[in-house]
Amino acid sequence: MTTEEKRESWPHRLVVVEGLIGVGKTSLARKLAESVGAGTVFEQPMENPFLERFYKDRRAAAFPAQLYFLFQRARQLSELRQHDLFAQVRVADYMLDKDRLFARIVLDDEEFKLYDQVYTRLAMDAPVPDLVVFLQAPVDVLLRASTSAAFPTRSTSTPPTSSGSETHIRAISTSTRRRRC
After folding, report:
1. Residue 154 pLDDT > 50, yes or no?
2. 134 pairs with which residues across the strands?
3. What is the per-residue pLDDT for 20?
4. For residue 158, is it within any domain?
5. Core-most of 10, 46, 99, 153, by most CB within 10 Å?
6. Structure-derived torsion over alpha carbons of residues 87, 91, 93, 94, reported in degrees to the nearest 10
7. Which residues are 92's β-sheet partners?
8. What is the total count of domains within the chain?
């Protein structure tokens, strides 16, 4: 079967691979996209100018880092709508809904109220995936993976697994597990 035939027979238009940092979302999304000749929509975390500050001082940089990610992802998803989502199969390595869940964990109550107002307006227009693949791994595996060579761009900044991040990753893992059930 040719790539074109695979793409035309693929029953999904938007597939999302989700999970925590270091679980292999981008790798699987890339392989899925290649196997069916789909386009990709990937997170661009290293474009976030607040990310390094967030790794150093979560409390001080959480709000601007989260807003940056929200606007970045909303823009990417809006572009999908503009390019007729139904014309091409797409595979993404994130889902906008998880952005809100992550924000609930890292922001204080007042920041989250403001974030949620912005999220509500931006999420109204986001395309809904017709298949979500959620990857899981034990927290110790995620901690090792997020500081490994798999993330060479993070080597210049404090890794996301420093200063209490095991607790942070466990909180996100628990929240996503609860959300799916």
Report:
1. no
2. 18
3. 84
4. yes
5. 99
6. 40
7. 16, 41
8. 1
